[in-house]
Description:
Number of domains of chain A: 2
CATH topology of the largest domain in chain A: Rossmann fold
Strand order of the largest sheet of chain A: 3-2-1-4-5-6-7-8
Number of strands of chain A: 8
CATH class of the largest domain in chain A: Alpha Beta
Oligomer: homodimer
Distance between the termini of chain A: 52 Å
Structural class of chain A: alpha/beta
CATH architecture of the largest domain in chain A: 3-Layer(aba) Sandwich
Number of helices of chain A: 12
Amino acid sequence: MERIRAINDIDTIACIGAGTIGGGWAAYFLARGYKVKVWDPAPDAAAKLGRLIEAAWPALEQLDMVPGADKNAFSVHTDLSEAVAGAGFVQESAPEELELKRKLFAELDAVVDPDVVIGSSTSGYPMTDMAAALAHPERFVVGHPFNPPYLIPLVEVVGGELTSKRAEAWAAEFYEQIGKSVILMDREVPGFIANRLQEALWREALHMIDNGEATVEQIDRSITDGPGLRWPMHGPMLTFHLAGGEGGMAHMLDHFGPSLKSPWTRLEAPELTGELRDSVVAGCDTAAGERSFGQLVAERDAGIIAIRKLAGGRG
Amino acid sequence: MERIRAINDIDTIACIGAGTIGGGWAAYFLARGYKVKVWDPAPDAAAKLGRLIEAAWPALEQLDMVPGADKNAFSVHTDLSEAVAGAGFVQESAPEELELKRKLFAELDAVVDPDVVIGSSTSGYPMTDMAAALAHPERFVVGHPFNPPYLIPLVEVVGGELTSKRAEAWAAEFYEQIGKSVILMDREVPGFIANRLQEALWREALHMIDNGEATVEQIDRSITDGPGLRWPMHGPMLTFHLAGGEGGMAHMLDHFGPSLKSPWTRLEAPELTGELRDSVVAGCDTAAGERSFGQLVAERDAGIIAIRKLAGGRG
């Protein structure tokens, strides 16, 4: 993009689609002090959106709200050009169908000022596939949130082959400025990062149910009362770094590497080359940083204790 | 098993192996008021175990400790028959090598009273493979914990082909009585449940690192700042039940079923038959129980807020 809107000049954001994700974005943008214009063709869109914002607002008051935020500062439109008029950023959250997204992107491209970046909430379609036929594909970028977008910080940012690097960087900076945890990906891969990981887990779960190996209840409890208690503190890599004891990930891979070939999931393991081993170990060392083994353990344990003490009293 | 020790008659437990898992079990059993006899051939085993128990004790004081628990009520042995003498239950947590487990199980079988159940912490070997050549295989059962065993409630219980149903049920009841969240599996499957799910996620992560698609840091943050914030409250099934909006899992599968074939992980999806669809939907309806969609959302949101407010202040 040659010209691009300055982030600080934006006071209005357009949300395209007012479902669970689009409505969640709208609530978040309102909490960050923006005016929000929502486009949704459904006759009950305004009523549903109002209920969603009401339900989300108390949560937002506890975490990410800025002073002066107004939960009523939104309008709902059925005309696309009316919805995007005056908006300095557009977040698209239409249903997850490739043809629908392509058609909608072309319509958006025609009515949104060319210096405005358009982010897509797609769960996994590469932007290259969605933006192939556009007049201004350079300002279309994936900004993939997680449900509920008003509480989960992660946003995965990645452009397509025709997206400009400036638009990618702008989107990453914009989401960071509004309080999100941004992963700016180097390359496109279907499903991005977190959904590939979730999807592998979900498919293995479906296989187990399909084979009568586990019930829905057992699968959920195996996560909520097991590994799920660790993952808010340490992701899968740092978790296994700790499982290696004081020898960390290096000990883990050098001693349990062979079990990578065990039939413990239907997903085939990659070859554990020396190169892969070294990059995983180096990544964990970087992630651990200054924190000693004991400090990481204390951090994990404090988190598990707090989570287990939460209302609900599970476990 | 014809005769089996009454759970309430047990005052001493033997822990075989004093590494991260075995030592964690020892700390937990001490906190539950048992005397613990630990077998470990390593010369520094007693010193390491002492440090592990010291580090774990403050955490145990906050959650699962019973009155009168004594952190010094343990002894360390290098002679196996000495270690198991007087123990009413044995928890084996030796290194994860099949031949080593087989040999150790035969030695244990020879010195442990035949009315005593022996639980194995194996991460994924089926008991049928480990207990094939034993004189009393009927009292050997998998009791698979998660790191750290003194804080994570989940224990997966499953017997082998030669395990008696009474021993399986006894182990499940024993772990439940000492405060664990038990999943009693109907059938053996390598890796049990949670490790099959974790392993699918871990392998997809290794593939992504191997292909340069994501870094270690990005993978961990994609979980800690994303789906990992939901999993302590709702497992993967109930999470997707909510992602389906008010239509729940039925809406999810009926509308997003085709995306099951998307290349969003390297793990092939099972065929989404009507039967599989119905059993997943029924399982989610059972799991949701009396809780409405709004109640489930409120429960999830309260949990995410509490987790995000934890010390550490991530996100």
